Structure formats: structure tokens, C-alpha cells
Amino acid sequence: MLSIDKPPSHLLLDSPYLKKFWNRRYELFERYDMGIQLDDESWFTTTPECIARHQAKICTCDFLIDAFSGIGGNTIQFALTCGMVLAVDNVYSRLLLLRNNAQIYGVCSKISLICADAAKLLRSLRVSCPARSSHEQGNENPNLLNSDGAKNTEMTNDCSAPEHSSSSALDTPLLQSPISKNCIGSTVVDVVFMSPPWGGPGYTGIVLPPGSSSWNARKRNRWFLEAAEAIEHTKNLEELPSFRAALSAARHLCPRVVTYLPRNSSIGQLLCLSWPIEECGCERCSQTMEICFEEYVLRGRRVALGVYIGRFHDLSQSTV
């Protein structure tokens, strides 16, 4: 937890690469000097405030879920433009930091905190088909209850202490019932935003493009040689923890999903994010979604990509 006016010694000794992030602290939070708190990982995982503000304007809605909230870089900006924001993170201490930071921006009353795995939580909130019986809905949608009827996960108002969620009820699979395969259903969730952890500074990887499974050994070897000489390697999205599972659950839950991803993400993999989801046969997941990319630039340097899946009326392809 850091909220001091000069870089702590461990930024220079234990984690020297964090010094550059300290120098950019006002890009992360313009109100940093008012008591903003971060943990070590948050220095390089928090969305810069100007980018988060831009994303919040596009995602203005009644109810938004921030599936990987961290210490609140995006959550706070969403709370300024949305009616209610559900902030989800699997690290309890980060939610406590988020609560502190939200108080500084005066948006605590519009944020609910929940400590849970993002993919499991989104699956537990999946759409129920109106045509299904109440008995079937009760079996597949446990509403986060344990055996004695008490809630394991509480969505709290006013940024009160977030509750832990460890119930096996969150492990329910996506839409096992064939009755719901032709049903889109309705949902109170307008947008799901996710900024999954990328792996820290220096993240790299080599990703074969779509169609490479048909390459012969000679073509494959030539491609690897050319990729090794590239200025910046491509980030493999398959390496992001829980991202695929969370994205599949989010697309089933609501028609609009936004992801904040590394600047060197594979274009082929990004396009695949809008393709039909094979694991689910419902009408919504079987559709190819609209997709749009945004490139974010700070200090003349590309820092990240925004991927908008679904229809966003205020969105235009742009460089921010």
C-alpha cells in the first residue's frame, strides 16, 4: 500500500522497473496526492485516467460490471458516467484499496464490491430463459446461496467491506439445458468491462496466425525466424489468466463487452473474440458480434488497445 510523496526505497531496490511508473503516477490518478493507494502490481495494471475517462463516456449505461477491477482505475470513471457499477476482483486487499480511492473521487455510493473469480461470477449471473420452469431455473441459477440459504456473496452499497465468495455454486456451467438454446433472454447488465492482468512489464510471446495449422515445417520455421527479428513480439491472449472463460460468460450475459488489452495483441486473436462461442449453443452466443478497435497513445507511444464487442452508439474508430 503506497500513498506517500516520494518513491519508496523498494521501487528503486526490490523493483527497479517500477520507478518509471512512479514518475507517471498522475497519469494513473490525477488526484494521487489526495491519498490514492496502490499495491505493487497496480502500478503497471491500472488504466491511465484519461483512457479510463474516455472508455467511461462510451460505456455510459445504467448497470456495468467491471470484471477485473483492481484498485479502481476504470471503476471510478465508470461510476461517474453509469448508474451503478459492480466491481469484481479476486484479491480482497485490492478491493479495500478501491474503496479508499473511490472515496477520494466521491463515487462510493455508486459502486458495489465483490471478491470473486470473474469467470465464475459472470457464469452465475447468466441469462435465464423465460420459457424455462422455475424449478429448472432454481437448479441452474443458485443465486450465490449456500446450503442453509445464506448468501455467500453480498453486493454491498456505499463501498462497504466487500464479501468473499468461495461457494461451489459459482462453478455452474454455461447453459446446460437444451430448452434455452433458442432463447436470448433479457438482462439487467448493460455492459461488461474487463481489463485482465497482462503479466507485468516485459510481457511478450509469439503467436501463430490463423490458418497456421496447415503450414508445412519449412513455412513454419521461416515464420518463426521472421517473428524472432520483429521489433516487438505479439502477445498471446491465450496466456491471460481466466480471460477466455470470463469473455465467454460475459458475451452470454449481455450484448456489449469491452476489453482493455496489450498494444501488441495478435490481430487474428482479437478478431476471433467476436466469433460464435462453440461451448454454448444459445442464439446470442452463436452470432458473430460487431467488433471495433481503439488504439491508445500516451506521450506519443502506443500503450494499449480497446476492443469493443457489440454495438456502441458513441463509438468511432479512433486514436486516444
UniProtKB/TrEMBL annotation:
Q: Which regions are flagged for Polar residues bias?
A: 139-170
Q: Please give the GO cellular component terms listed in this UniProt entry.
A: nucleus
Region called Disordered, residue ranges: 132-170
Which reaction does this enzyme catalyse, per its entry? a 5'-end (N(7)-methyl 5'-triphosphoguanosine)-ribonucleoside in snRNA + S-adenosyl-L-methionine = a 5'-end (N(2),N(7)-dimethyl 5'-triphosphoguanosine)-ribonucleoside in snRNA + S-adenosyl-L-homocysteine + H(+); a 5'-end (N(2),N(7)-dimethyl 5'-triphosphoguanosine)-ribonucleoside in snoRNA + S-adenosyl-L-methionine = a 5'-end (N(2),N(2),N(7)-trimethyl 5'-triphosphoguanosine)-ribonucleoside in snoRNA + S-adenosyl-L-homocysteine + H(+); a 5'-end (N(7)-methyl 5'-triphosphoguanosine)-ribonucleoside in snoRNA + S-adenosyl-L-methionine = a 5'-end (N(2),N(7)-dimethyl 5'-triphosphoguanosine)-ribonucleoside in snoRNA + S-adenosyl-L-homocysteine + H(+); a 5'-end (N(2),N(7)-dimethyl 5'-triphosphoguanosine)-ribonucleoside in snRNA + S-adenosyl-L-methionine = a 5'-end (N(2),N(2),N(7)-trimethyl 5'-triphosphoguanosine)-ribonucleoside in snRNA + S-adenosyl-L-homocysteine + H(+)
Recorded hits in InterPro entries, A to Z, give: RNA_cap_Gua-N2-MeTrfase, SAM-dependent_MTases_sf
**Cross-referenced SUPFAM superfamilies, in alphabetical order?**
S-adenosyl-L-methionine-dependent methyltransferases
Give a single Pfam family match.
Answer: Methyltransf_15
Q: Which GO terms describe its molecular function?
A: RNA cap trimethylguanosine synthase activity
Q: Which family does it belong to?
A: Belongs to the methyltransferase superfamily. Trimethylguanosine synthase family.
What is the protein's given name?
Trimethylguanosine synthase
Q: What is the lineage of its organism?
A: Eukaryota, Metazoa, Spiralia, Lophotrochozoa, Platyhelminthes
